[in-house]
Amino acid sequence: MLKKNSVLKQETDNLISIPGIGLLTAVTVLAETNGFEMIRNKKQLVSYAGLDVKEKQSGTSILGKPTISKRGNRYLRKSLHLPALAAIRHDEHYSNTFTRLVSKHGIKMKAAVAMQRKLLELMFIIFKSKQRYDSQYHIQKQTYNQVATK
């Protein structure tokens, strides 16, 4: 289908430009979300995937630790696990974010799930903007913020 449809091929090429995302992951996410057709924003997408946070509480007492809801599409969550680990291993920005989250919480899986969520949101943004992933974006943004605060 990708060879026959040039628009779909271009969209998957844009998604593949993200570190850790391969052809199978891009196609799976597009298929499971129907090309992000019914998704209006990132929050709705994260909730659809079941990567949103759920807190257990009763009245004024909080009885349990917050966890992901897992009420959404399990195939989306499953397809993003290994790409998140690959992005952590091969991209410096994701590696730094992962290290920061692990040092804050002390739980590696919690940080890995956060990276899955970040990748899914980034895929949505790149799909909607129809642009390729820019690896220098984070560096340019950081430099701009430093200049603006001076």
From TrEMBL:
Residue ranges constituting the Transposase IS116/IS110/IS902 C-terminal domain according to the UniProt record: 14-94
Endpoints of the signal sequence: none
Pfam families, per the entry: Transposase_20
InterPro entries xref list: Transpos_IS110, Transposase_20
GO terms under biological process: DNA transposition
One Gene Ontology molecular-function label: transposase activity
Name of the protein described by the UniProt record: Transposase IS116/IS110/IS902 family protein
